[in-house]
Structure formats: structure tokens, C-alpha cells
Amino acid sequence: MVEVHGSAESPARSNSFSHDEDVDEDHGGDYSTRMEELFDGDEEEHEVEDDEEEEFIYDGVDAEQITGTNYREQLQDVLGPDDTSDIFEEDEAEHSLLQEDLSEQSGNANGSEQPHAEIVPDSAGLSLSPPVQLTMPTLSQQLPFTPVQFIGELPQPFLHPNVSRLRSFIPTSPPVNAGNISLPVDLTAATGFASPLSRASDISRTSTPGAHQKGALNNYLKAEREVFRWTVLQNSTNQLYAQRPSKAALLLGASNLGSPMVLAANGLICVGTDAGRIFVFDFKQTLLCICGNDTSASTVGPISAIALSHDHTYVASGHVSGYIQLFDLKTPQAPARVVPPPSIQAVMSGQQEGHLAGSRIVNVTFVAGRHTAIVSGDENGLSFYHILGKVLFVEAPDTIRILGNYPEESVAEPDGSHVSTSALNGPGVRSFRRRKPRNTVLAMATLPLGIAAHPTDAYQIVALLTTTKLVMVGLKPSPKTWLKRARDDGTESTSLDWRRGTLAWFPSIKGAQGPKETVAHSAHPTLAYSWGKTVRLMRVSETTTKQSVSNARSGKTREVDMGTLVFEDSGKWSMEDAVLALQWLNASQLSVFTSTTLSVHDTRTSKVVEHVHFDASILVSPSLGSTTNGSVTYSESLNDIAHSIRAYKGKIFLLGREGLQVGTLLTWADKILSLVEQGDFLSAIELTRSYYTGDAPGNRNGLPDEEEERKAVLGQKLHELMVASACYAFSEDRMNDATHSSPDGRGVDRTSVFEGLVTTCARACITLDNYDFLFEDLFQHFEDAGIPRIYLEQLEAFVLEGAIHFVPPRITQRLVALHDDNGQPDLAERVIWHIAPSCLDINQAIRLCRTYQLWDALIYVYTRALQDYVSPIVELIALIRKTLSSPGNISSLDGIGSHSVAYKIFPYLINVLSGQTYPSGEPLPSDEAERAMKDVFHFIFNGTSAVWPAQGGRLILTSQDNGMEPTYPYARLLLRFDAESFLHSMDIAFEDLFLNESSDISRLSIVRILWDIASHEDLPLSAVTFINIFIARNVPKYPQYIQIHIEPSLLHDLLILLATPPDSETREDRQLAAEYLLSAYTPRDSSHILKLFEDAGFYRILQNRYRHERQWTQLLSSYLLDPSLQTPDVLPYVDEVLTLSRTGSRNSLPEDMKDALSGALGGLLAIDTRSTAALVDKFAPNLHEAALSSMDPTDDRGRFDYLLHLLGPQSPDGENIASSRPPDYPHVSEPLCRLFVKLQCRYLPSEVIDSLDRMRSSLDWPAVEQVCEENHAYGAVLWAMNQRGQPREALAKAEAFGKQFTQHIVRAVMASSPDEADVGKLVSFLREIGQRGASICLEHSSTSATTEVPLEDIWFQLLSSQLHSVQVISNLHLADGADGHRLKINALSTLRGLVQDTFASLVTISSTRAVSFPRLFKRLVDPGLYAASTSGTPYTEFRTILTGMLESYRSDGDMLFISQRLLDRDVFDTVEEFTKEKMRGWSARRGVCSYCHQPLVQYDGSSNTNNTEIRIIVSRTAIYHASCLP
User: Fold this and answer.
1) How many CA atoms lie within 13 A of 849 on its CB side?
2) Which of 91-95, 445-449, 1256-1260, 1441-1445 comes out lowest in average pLDDT?
3) Does the pLDDT at position 1253 exceed 90?
4) Residue from 810, 809, 904 nearest 854 by CA
5) How far is residue 571's CA from residue 528's CA, in Å, rounded to a whole number?
6) Beta 56-59 vs 94-97: how paired, if at all?
7) In this predicted model, what pLDDT tens digit does every residue of 280-292 receive, in sequence order?
8) Is the dihedral of CA 1047, 1053, 1057, 1058 positive or negative?
9) Cα dihedral angle (1172, 1178, 1179, 1185), rounded to 10 degrees?
10) Pairing of strands 228-232, 597-602
């Protein structure tokens, strides 16, 4: 084995900026010069050992930079060393890719420099100018950064608690912790800071960093980030893509070098052409040699695969003809070895192995570090191991087939477009068919040698990927298949996706980067392979076991280590499109190419690191020429680009149709320096900050994975970038350069530039947690420039957001004074209580707050800066005193009434007595919180007026006109002002643990003080009520602190006081307080207390008592009297009480409960009629009549709803309380049933017959018929008569009804002013009668015998009656324009339709012998033949009716015919499709047995341990093992 590993020391690089304060004066506003000096270092020249590999020199744009400092060196100097974890140690072989002297590349006649091109994946040939010194940078790109939401949670006003803790509905939200009115904040969106530096910028001024940040982030994410830096290798491209010689030149002997087809780039750049030549370049783009000659090229044909040996001395090429050539680069004119396709006779006889003539070689690769060991694969799925060595200086090649089978059939010779078949196989020899392969080798690669030896190197592993399996073959010590893995990703979306596959090895490494737990795994070789859209990773390692081996000569045994390869899956993910190529960039990053995208994946996390657009159509496809003979389709060949993509030491080489280009994945340092070179220094700061926080998008190549190490690298860079940016922004030259002028001469507003500088540096300093630069250097720059206002406005946003708490006093003074001078005291107030108190100017803050009545800020200054928690109460008590003396007449200076301002005392008390600051609500330090609560409690509940401050203060009075002060003056004043709000605050304060531990103030003492205050008559009744509520609710909450120390008599009196006030507004609040108190105290005189509760309306308490004592009558009354239950919710409670009372009385309702229920029926019916009906029917059905009688006499609709629930159809589940009723309705009397029928005829006539059918056993039929007739339910009358067995009488009744309504219609139509509604109603009656008569006739025609009911007579009776009505109305003579004429036509149309429907019904039973249609027809036309003479029906009228019927039948027949034709066609198409599918056959799903569900065939290469033959049985619908056949 030959191992060649390049090595070189990495150059030393500086990790910090070189900064000199004097540089500012020397260079002024020349930002590029400033950056150059900032980035320059004193490091030594990089010395790279000249190893076997050529130096890879390149600057990215084929030119030297004007600055004289190479881009890569700048990058190293400024941002530190590159990614040292690159396992290929990139620095050993290259600094950059430098093209040769530009003077050799004249691009035009005048000898000027040819413009260079930057190659991007979607468009080759884009122009790119080299970096130049920028006197004014052009900044056009926004940066990603984390948005800073600067709008703080401003304090909200403490509103009067309409629903407080003392109310019956306790609020669930936490208490309000702030006390100022919210002021609007400017939310105007701001733009990025970098853009205004552009010459063309006209962005207006803005001052909101949060909105600026969010907008810049969105713009950056939408923009196309530069991920790869692409460049055309111009020298190589010029030689590869030079003008081809003409045909005449070829005839005169010119060489045809061909067009590029395939690429190899691992140490050298090798490009194979379609003329069989190989161009070999070094990384200086120097053409080293061209392998091959015209003679060999004409024989072997175009190159379809190429490989470069590990030591870069040999090149192997595979050709479309099946030839394989090996070139020694020292003698490239002729191949050192040639592997020709074997003859058919040799293959068929087994004497020789190899690729058949005309089989396109799709892959060729060297084995490990060997020169003459090659593995190849062709389009027919065959793969061979070629050993091209010599024995005694004589070539002794050996070829071993490691994959695939030869075709079984032989046909005519292939075309000889590239190679003469007769020359290879001899005359008359037949070759195998050239056809589209079914199982080609999609990809193949041998495991390359890594920079560190690994046990797997000894096996010389080769990975082969076909459309159906992945095969791992070890060539040493003898060829062996170690793994066969079947494809298991299911059916791809297209057949092309099924035939897409690629793979790439990454060898073993010396050390691994990343987390410690992944280091051990990272040292093993890893295979990345893909089928269709799915990418998988497989790690290969070796395990050893001890085995005993005996010596045949000595007979002794010894133990030896036997190695076994282990294959471990280590990752899997899917792409949106089929994967076309895979290439490793480094040990943890894999580049994945599809037809439209190029993405870089982190193999440790299987996540996408970078993602850019990529156009695969610009690359060369080596199989495009094979589309002419049909072996490869054009669509399949178009994306066959795997041979045009190679990666080497982090560089990606692309062989395009128009040029050879190279791309580099930009690291974090590349991106930052790119922004610096553009002049976008603020974006560079933001990007550096995002890398510092770990929020930057894209890869982090070159940065340590450990957070502490990463921050150590980036922290200093971020600080020095801020320093350099500030120096440049305020340099004297830049302040006067052209960026401040516009074409119209008016100048450009650059305020946004300096605003962005403050916001960017502020975010960076917050991230670094170091504010020295922000508050010292940067502020001094703004101060010296005379624009501190911009600095202060931008800084304020961070203060209000809470991101910055500590601001130096000199800046705080300026910020507060700024708003004071602008007449915006509200903004100054916000600033004051957002800044740490130690940073405030106390005198300035207090003066401003007193002047403008800034109460929140004043309280903040008192409490946080002066540690005085009583003075705010003193100030607010003075306001309360004024408010009570002159309500509504005093206003504060800011326009807010003193009444509203005085309410700030309550949120202040809540915060302080809960150990929180005001107004932010942040926790106070424990010792300070204890001191604050102690001072406040002592002052509020002081028995007499106090002097404050204690030393040199004044007496704080509460009485009007300085009169006599009462006891507990301050608590009493707050109770008079708003007792509910004050006690709400005390209720929250009681929850603090301070009152558990304090020795001189306790909950009990406060309760006694409140009780003492309430005993005097100077408080309003509402205040006393809330005091009682407060005490009653807190006694059971703190029994160990309050209850055990209070006499029971006091609690009894408290319970009486809660029930005494006749205030309905607080009834629920007092009842809830009484419930609290009763949970801890049982009164001694319960009867008296219950009487008080009844008078007070405490029904909830009474209900609990009555339920406990089983007083059902009183419980029912309490539910009915409870005002909170005057809704349908009361009915379930009533049902529950009635159920409980019936349970204790042998399942019968007691009489007293019946009386109570009877008396409550009126109220219950008013709540819900139907539910009440169910309730009565369940418990007291004899009260139905009483319930109906209790209803309003005019409320017939209510009675109907009541009865409908009892007698109607079953209601949906859950609608009624009552359960399902028996069908005979035993609880409902016959009069009530008759009443229900009467009401239903009026309100729901369509359901009358259904109701009669349900109640047939409970009805008096003659009475019901009379009721129905009186209420115009004529169909119900006929139905009832028929149900009583009187069909002839029913039809006679129908005939009488018909004649009656016909006469009514005649009179209505002939009237002078006919009523259309009246006529329509009469016609509807006739239609109802006719339809019911027809149903009667149909019923008897299908069930009755002829002797029972004469069917022909009843049909004749019905039809003659209907025809009589038609004749009478038809004989009316009315003028065409008369109103009655239109009504007549409408009535005739309806009645004729009725006759047609009757005839249609008759036709359905015309097959019976009892009805003769011809005889019936004659009777209808001439009734006198069989019956007494009557007015006959004119034949014309009869013909009109029959003609209409026939037309209707004809239309129905046409529709049936059309439907039949459509159905026949659908059936034909379905049968045809089914036949095609049946002829196509079927395949077994998932390849498993339908019985045992085990695989039919083992695909993993395992042997059949039982040595039994496996037989498979295929049936029509399933596939089985022979042993599993059912």
C-alpha cells in the first residue's frame, strides 16, 4: 500500500486588531485605509512547504488586489485563524486560487485588462470588479440581528375595583403593579443604519431601534445572502473551451482535443473530453500535460469516467466503448496500461472477465494508494476489480467481477460509432445487445486513505450503488461481499427519481471537531449515499474477535484477532428533489446537489446549514452522447452531472458547459470582512454580534463549538469593530465628504446614520455586558460633534425597554433635561422610573416631578433613591384630603383630576405591602422590603396624627379646617375616600409572610383597629359593610392568627351585621362573606339567624341548611325564590328536590310537595314551558290540567307547546327532563288529547295525521273528526274515516268537500275584486283532499279484495269528483284582462296536475284484475253508460289531461334513454381499463409473504441456514412461501 500525505505548518496569525489612537488624525475619513491598517498585522509571511502538491494560489477574481494585501491574508489578520478543524489541513496546499499574470490575458485590442467573471450557480459569466479603496463606502445589504423590543410595560392606572377581592366574583388576574397612565410610544418603523451611508440614499430620519432592527432583519432574510464565492478559472477555461479546429484543419492533420466531459480534482485538475484526451492542470492553472494521442483516442472513444490516483501520479479513464486506460503523468503521450473489452468467446467460455464492447463505463476509481489497482462499473450493472501489475517485467493483468451478471441473449453487433467491433471480437462474432440497462451502477467509490491510518484501510472497501441495493465489497485479503442492503425508501414520485443515486466517502481523520460525545464516531470513515430524494449516512468500523487457529505442521493452536466490518447508520434526511451529487466539504459538512438547489448539511445534526439556488443545466453531462443510440433517455442524461462536480479541501469545482469554475463556502470571517470591504461597518458589527450570541444564520466554519471559546474569539473583534466604526463615522473628512450633498444642492439628512450607530453599538454592548465604550467613548463622540440629542433619543429606547438599567448620572441628567426642555414631562417620568435610582440626580428629579405633578416618578425617587416609603403616602393623603373637601373642583397641572391621581395610593400600597417596587412591580431586597412594610403599616394604622419626617417634619392632619383629629386618622381617611379599594389592598397585604413574623403589627391588630373604626358613626354605611365583609372573609383564612383570638360573641354579632343591611347591591358579597364565616364559626341561635338570612335573601346558605335537614318544601321554596336562579337553570334544581322528596316517601310525591309544585307552576311555565311539562308529567301528572289552567287564557301557543311535549314525537336527547313516555299516554286525558288535536290543526297542520296515528287508542274518533273538520284539517278527516273502515264514506265525504270548495272558488273568481289568497287557500284544500283520496284508493287497491271494496268504483268516484271540479272551473267565462281570469288559469293548472297525479297512481296498480282501465275510461267519458246520468266531462278537457300525462311519460322516457347511454359508456370505459390492468399483471407489495409476513427473499446477503430450497407460490390475489400456502 502506498500512502502519500501532504503536510505543512499552518501560518501564525494575529487574533486581534491593531489599533492606534493616532491613526484617526492621519487618515481622517478614508475608511478603507483605516480598515486596512486595522486589519494589518505584523505576522510573518506564510511559508508553505513545497510538498508533492502544487501550491494552490488564487485570489478569487483572477487578479492582485490594489491594496497590496491579499484578501485571505486580510481575513486572517483581522479575524484570526481559519477553521483549524479542517481535516485536510487546507493551508498546507493553498492560500488561494491565483491565476497567472493578467498581462498574458489581454481581453481586447488596446491591451486593457480583461474583465473577470464571478461564477454563480444560476448564471455563469457575471462581472465582478476587484476590491478597491473606498473613500465613501456603498452599503446595500442589511444584516440579520435579533430584534430588541424597546417598548416597556408601562404602568397602568389603578382603576376603582368594580370587582375586587371583597366582591362575590373574585378576580383571577393578579393585582395591578403599576400606577401611571400609559403614554403612546412612537412606533414608526426605522430602517437600517448601513443604508444611509450610500451616496444615493435618501432615507428619512427615524429614532426607534426596535422597529429598525425588525425591518432590517426581514430585509436581510429576504435578500440573497452570499454563501459561496464562485470564480471562473480563466486560464483553464480558455484552454479547455478553445475554438475547435474545422474539418479542413482536421484533414490537414490538426488535433481534435474535444469538449470537456468529466472532471477529477483531488490534488490536480483533470478533465476528460469526448475526443479521448485528458487535460491535467495544477492549481496554478498551468497545463501540465494532455494525456492520450489521436491513434488511441480513435480507438477508445469519448471519456465517460475519470480518476486521479492518491499520490497524483496516475490518471485512469473509462470510455463509452468499454475501454479503460491508465496514464502515467510522467509519460502521458501513451497509456501505461490498457484494459480492452474481452471477446465474446472468452467471456462465454469463462476464460476472461471484463466490460463488454460498447458498454459505457460510468465509474472508475483507484484502490487506496495503489497505482495499478482499479475498480470500474458500467451502465449494464457490471463492476470489475482490475489488477494491472507486472510479473517479471511482463504485464499480467487480472480482472475479477465483483458485481452484476452478463446479459443472457446475444443479437446483432452494436453500432461502431466509437469503436470497431470486428477489430475487437474478430469477424463473425456476435456481441451482446446494446439496450437501456435495467440495473446500472448508479455510483461507485473506493474508500480513500485518510490522514490517519484506520483498521478499515486494510480491507480496501469499495461501495457500489445500484437502483435496488447498496453493496460493500472488501478487496483484501480476498474479495468478499460484506454488506448487501436492499432499497427500502418506497416508490419514488417519478421513474427518473428511481434511477437517481450517488455516494461519497469521507475517510478517517486524526482528530474530530464537535461535541465530545461525537469525537469517537467522527474518527471512523463515513459513507454518504442517496437514492432518489433520500440521503443516508453510514459509518464503517472494525471489530475484532479471538479465534483459535491450528498449525498444520506442528499441530499447535494459537489465538489470533479476526476482524469484522461493522456498518452503522448514522443519519438520514430527505430533500425536495432527487439528489444528483454528494460531495464532502469537511468532516461534518456534506454538500447536496439537486437540479435546483445546492445545500450544505451538518452531518452531526442532519440539519441544513446553507441553502442556495443552483441550476444543474449549466453543467456537463457525460452521458448526453449516449442518447442517440437509445441506451440513455435525454431527460435522464440531462441531470447526469455527478462527474462534473468535485470537492477538494473545502473547494467545490464545477465543470460547466461554458467554463470551469471553483467555489468556496464563506466562513464567518469571510462574511464579516466582506461587509467591511463594502463599507457596511454597522452590518459587520451586527453580524459579529449575532455570531457571538449564536443567532447568525448559515454555517459557523472557523468558530469553536464551545460557547466560551467562541465568545472569547468574537468579543474582542466586536469591541474593536465598534471603536473603528465610531472613529470613521465622526472623522473630519467623512463629516464633510460627498455623502452629505445631493444633486439639488440641498444636502442629505444623515441623522439616521448616527442613530443607527447608537442602536448598533448599544445592542453590541448589551450582548458583551460591557458599557464602557457606549457611555464613554461613543457619547463623547456625539458630544464633541454637537449632536448628543441623537444619542440620547436612541439610548432612551433601550432604557424604557429595560435592556439598560444603569446609565451614568451625567447622561441621565442630559436625558431628563432633554424632555424637560421640550415640554414633555411625561416622557421624563418614564425615563426616571426606568433608570436605576443610583444613577439619578435626586434634586433634578424631585424638582421636575413636583413642577409637573409626575407622581409615579416622584414615588419612584422617594422609595428607590431616598428609601422613604412614607412620604409618597403623605403626598397622596394631602390630595385625598383636598378631594374630599372640594370634590370635582381641583385639577392637577397635567389635566388629570386630583381624584384620579389620589387613587395611585392603592396600587402603591399593594406593591409596597407585597414587597415590590412601585410602579414596576419588581421584588425588593428582603431587608428593604421588611423595613418598607413596617414603616407603611405603622403610619397607616397609627392611632394619632404623626409628624413626618420624624426629624424636623410637620404634623400630617386629615380633618377639615385643622379641626379635632379622630383616632386612626389615616386609615379612617382612606376608608372614607374608598373603603373597598383600601380593604382590597389590605386583603392582598394580608397574604405576605411579614405579618406572620412581625412583633408589633399583626393581622389581629389591624382587624381590631378596623372593628374600632367601624363602631363609630362617622363612616358611611357602605364603608362599614365592606369592613364587615373584609373581617368575615379573613377570619377563616388565618384562623391561627385571627380567629382564636376573637370572642365568639363578636363573630355572632358580625354574622348579624352581614345579614342586617337592606342593600341589594351588596347582597351577594355579604352572603359570600357569611359563608366564609360560617365555615369557621357555628352560631348558637340558629333559628334567629335563619330568619335573618331569609329576610336578607341569603338563599344559597338557606339551601345548604334545608338540604342538610331534609326540609324539602322549604328547599323547593328557596330555589323558587332565589333571584339568581330565575332562568332555566332552576328547573334541574327543582327536579332534584322533587326526586329526593319522592325517594323518602315510597316513590310517591308527598302532598305538601304537590301543593308547593302546584303553586309554583305559573312561575315555572313562565321560565320554560316544555321543561315544566316534562317535570309535571314525571312527578305529578294529575296536575296537567291545573298547569294548563294557570296559563294565560289567550296563550294557546303556550298550551300547544306544553301538550306537544307530552303528545308529540320524542324530543332529542337531553332536551327534556322526563324520560321516554309509554305509547298509550296514560297520564293525558282524552279531553287534553282532543285539545291537542285542535291546537295542532291550527299551528302544525302537517303533523296532525301522524299525531292521530300515535294516539289512536286514546281518541274518540267521531269527536276528533268533527274537531278536524272545524279546524280545516280535511285530509285528517278522510284519514280518520278510512281508519274506521269507511273508505266509501270517506270518498263520498271527499266528493262533498270537492263540490263545496269548487263552488267557493267559482264565487271567489267571479267576484268583482277576487282575493288571490282566498282562492289559493281553497285550491290547496282541494289538492289536499284529492291526494288523501288517492292514497286511500292506493291503500285498498294493494290490500283489499274486490268483494270487500269495489276498487273500480272508488277510483271512478275519486276521478269523477276531480274532473267535475276541473269542468266547472273550465266552463267559467271571464275576459282575458280580468283579475279573475288569471286566478282561473292558476286554479285549472293545479287541478289538472292533481288529476294527472291521480291517473299516475292508478297506472301503478292497473295490473290488478279488479280495475279495467278501458272500462273506467269509458265511464269517465260517458258516465251514463253505467250510472245515473250526470253532467258529462267534455272530451276535449279529458284529452288535455291525458295529453299532458303522455308528454310527461315521453320526457321521462327520453331521460331514461340518455341515462342508459351514459351508463353504458361508463361501463365500457371501466371494463376496458380493468382489462388493461389485468393484462398488465400485478406485483407483490413490499416483497413479503401474505401469510407469515416474512420477506420472500433475503437481500442482506445472509445464507439460508437450513439449506432448504425456498419456493414461492403466486396466486391471483396474493403471494406465499410454499410452506405457508393456506
Assistant:
1) 23
2) 91-95
3) no
4) 904
5) 9
6) parallel
7) 999 999 999 999 9
8) positive
9) 60
10) unpaired
The phi-psi region of residue 548 (left if phi > 0; otherwise alpha if psi is between -120 and 50; otherwise beta) is beta
DSSP class of 28 = T
Q: What is the pLDDT of residues 333-361, one digit of tens each?
A: 999 999 999 988 888 888 889 999 989 99
Percentage of the chain modeled with pLDDT above 90: 29
Number of residues written out for the chain? 1526
Distance CA 230, CA 61 (A): 9
- In contact, 905 and 880? CB cutoff 8 Å: yes
Between CA 240 and CA 275 the distance in angstroms is: 12
Looking at residue 1348, the DSSP 8-state letter turns out to be T
pLDDT value of residue 47? 36
Q: Which residues pair with 530 in a beta bridge?
A: 502, 535
Backbone angles phi, psi at 536, to 5 degrees: -130, 155
CB 281 within 8 A of CB 236: yes
Angle 676-682-687 from CA coordinates, rounded to 5°: 80
Give Cα separations from 870 to 799, 953, 956, 1024, 1133 (angstroms): 27, 12, 11, 26, 54
Amino acid at 640: D
Burial class (CB in 10 A: 0-12, 13-18, 19+), 257: buried
List Cβ<8 Å contacts ≥24 apart for 324-328: 324/355, 324/361, 324/364, 324/374, 324/376, 324/386, 325/292, 325/296, 325/300, 326/371, 326/372, 326/374, 326/388, 327/278, 327/291, 327/292
What 1089-1092 contacts at long range (C-beta under 8 Å, 24+ apart), as own/partner pairs, is: 1089/1055, 1089/1056, 1089/1059, 1092/1056, 1092/1059, 1092/1060
Indicate the SS3 state at residue 1098. Answer: coil
Poorest-confidence range of 738-747, 987-996, 1239-1248?
A: 738-747
Q: Which residues pair with 545 in a beta bridge?
A: 562
Indicate the DSSP class of residue 155. Answer: P
Instruction: Evaluate the omega torsion of the peptide bond into residue 477 and state whether it is cis, within 30 degrees of 0.
Output: yes
Cα–Cα dist 627/633, whole Å: 5
How many whole angstroms separate alpha carbon 845 and alpha carbon 783?
23
CB atoms within 10 A of CB 942: 16
DSSP letter for 575, please: -
pLDDT at 1252: 84
φ, ψ at 337 (rounded to 5°) = -140, 150
The Cα–Cα gap between 18 and 74 comes to 12
1019: amino acid identity, one letter: L
Q: 1088 by DSSP, 3-state: which? A: helix
- pLDDT tens for 556-597 read 888 888 889 999 999 999 999 999 999 999 989 999 999 999
Question: What is the secondary structure of 1453-1520 as a DSSP string?
Answer: HHHHHHHHHHHHHHHHHHHHHHHHHHHH----STTB-TTT--BSS--S----TT-----EEE-SS-EE
Amino acid at 1383: L
CB 473 within 8 A of CB 461: yes
Q: Which three cell numbers stand for residue 688?
A: 459579529
Taking only Cα atoms into account, the Rg of the chain, rounded to an integer number of angstroms, comes to 51
C-alpha cell of residue 137: 463606502
DSSP string, 81-128: ---TT-TT-GGGTEEEE--S-GGG-B-STT-PBPPPEEEETTEEEEE-
1355 against 506, higher pLDDT: 506
- In DSSP terms, 287 is beta-bridged to 281
State which amino acid sits at residue 378.
Answer: D
| CB-count burial class (<10 Å; 0-12, 13-18, 19+) for 34 | buried
pTM of the model: 0.57
- Please report the pLDDT score of residue 1148 as a whole number: 82
